[in-house]
């Protein structure tokens, strides 16, 4: 097998194994990744702020003997501070900013031996289900269909992994931003229980606890092993997730046992969804039943779903405003129109109408929904839904040139219609994953979401790995790669 064939077909775990056996060098893997990026990135616009010289320096200094020694990697262009790796946060305002410290997240990845060489694109400040940012000169496109979005906000990571530039990449998830690109690009994405991964040292929590870090990968075992690398609290974290009795990797190696699995083919409010999304959920339910699980059609949750979504939007708008206010304070002058995209400016305007009491009311709504969803899932081990309400959106639909933040999220065809399932588990803090089990007649990936009770990450990872064994997806490749 040639190096090119091995790189295209093997996951990160297997590539690290080749390095460990001396069959390939980290420099050869990096050269292959850079060559692939040069070939496909002009088509998909997924990778930015590339610093191959920094990656070569890491190799020359001697890579740690970690589980992913020598494997090429990119961080999302949002968060994950790392010295030597410029970050723009999807914004012209911050283009090429140089971090002055390493996040705990990146430090753990570096110690695992990964060779980071750049960033994957993100919508401005992570506020959208598609990756379309003015700073990148155009949308990030889906390797399965260049007219479709790769998702957001980790859209660059999703597109690059699907296009075989990388076997795995960093993602983060504040309302679905790991699972949406995983679904859109035919990948596996896992959002852990809240606070499983430290966001320090500069941040205690993101978006009032909605956000968490993670990965998009082609294999479940890669995701599990990466989660083991980065999981665990650090001094100063405001809170942490319940400890796991076994590791993610151990969980992926064992069957979960017979589970009680409820499924939905409507939104949480009972509204209809696209036929392709419904078919994906029904197909996954049939597969799980054939694997011996008790599968049943779940009732709708007794929870204020729209109240939760509107409260979440308020938190996101406040988070955007806080970012912009910090930039204004640092530079000593206000942000002007044209420096950021209209959507961010309107999010800031909206946030400035929200009082302290209003913000606390939004947090109370979010917490009440979390309690309601915990009760809802107490009747089952796992809830199955589509990841999205539709196939991947056409490019341009979620552009941040949109100047009305609330209409962007709640207007006809807005975020709430497109992604009615994912944010619920950011609010509840429960683990949730998107698994690539279905492709529609147009050849577009349609992911399904699986979620479990708070702290039950290991059981959920076991189930995802079992699904991969029952219906492998790694040999499905997009036309652009």
Question: How would you describe this protein?
Answer:
- Pfam families: Amidase (PF01425).
- InterPro entries: Amidase (IPR000120), Amidase_dom (IPR023631), AS_sf (IPR036928).
- It comes from Albimonas pacifica.
- It is a single chain.
- The chain has 481 residues and is α+β, with helices and mostly antiparallel strands.
- It is 39% helix and 14% strand.
- The protein has 17 helices and 15 strands.
- The strands form four sheets. It has an eight-stranded mixed beta sheet with strand order 8-10-9-14-15-13-11-12, sandwiched between helices. Strands 1-3-2 form a three-stranded mixed beta sheet. Strands 4-5 form a two-stranded antiparallel sheet.
- α6 (155-162) packs parallel to α7 and α11 (305-331) packs across α12.
- The chain starts with a helix and ends in an 11-residue tail after the last helix.
- The mean pLDDT is 97.
Strand portion, in percent? Answer: 5-15%
Mean pLDDT: 97
Domain unit count: 1
The largest sheet is: 8 strands, mixed
- How many strands appear in the DSSP assignment? 15
The CATH architecture name reads Alpha-Beta Complex
- What is the CATH class? Alpha Beta
Shape: globular
Provide a count of the helices.
17
CATH superfamily, by name, is Amidase signature (AS) domain
SS-derived structural category:
alpha+beta
The order of strands across the largest sheet is 8-10-9-14-15-13-11-12
- What CATH calls the topology is Amidase signature (AS) enzymes
Instruction: Determine Rg (CA atoms, Å).
Output: 21 Å
Roughly how much helix do the residues carry, as a percent range? 25-40%
Low-pLDDT parts are none
Terminal CA distance: 18 Å
